[in-house]
Amino acid sequence: MIRVAVGSKNPAKLRAVEAAFRRMGIAAEVVGVTVPSGVSSQPFSDNETLTGAINRAKAAISNGYDFAIGLEGGVVETPPYGLFLCNWGAIIDQIGEIGVSGGHRLQLPEEIAKELRKGHELGTVIDRWANGANIHKNEGTIGILTRNQIRREQVFEDVVICAYAKFIK
């Protein structure tokens, strides 16, 4: 059994990592650890979101783990179509090898995008917009906007599998 640290205690991210390894047929003990992302609380580009994922993975790796995973959600401006949801993941092993992957893109409604451009965080905005609480720990913005046809956990599960592909021999 491998030991995997996830640079977050967000339940949706932890469930995604557990599901990804289960889907790959790899027995894994998954442990969430609190680490800084080193980026703004609302990443506003692919580069910043990917950097946050890499930073989380690097901060979470230690001698007790075979791999560490960082998962980060953000937004990216895509003229002329507006603001899109983006997701990135990074996996690092004990020798410092890194695999990365990106997830789905989803065009955000302009009323949500306007709030994000004012400096508000997506988690707060989507909770207010959908009249919910802690959506980022559950279905995520993608779940709300797709009526749960695609959930945050699913997106991150795919991201983990794609990032892990680098380590498959």
Automatic annotation (TrEMBL):
Catalytic reactions on record: XTP + H2O = XDP + phosphate + H(+); ITP + H2O = IDP + phosphate + H(+)
One Pfam family, short name: NTPase_I-T
Superkingdom of source: Bacteria
UniProt keyword Nucleotide-binding present: yes
Membership in a protein family: Belongs to the YjjX NTPase family.
Subunit structure: Homodimer.
Protein name: Probable inosine/xanthosine triphosphatase
Organism: Ammoniphilus oxalaticus
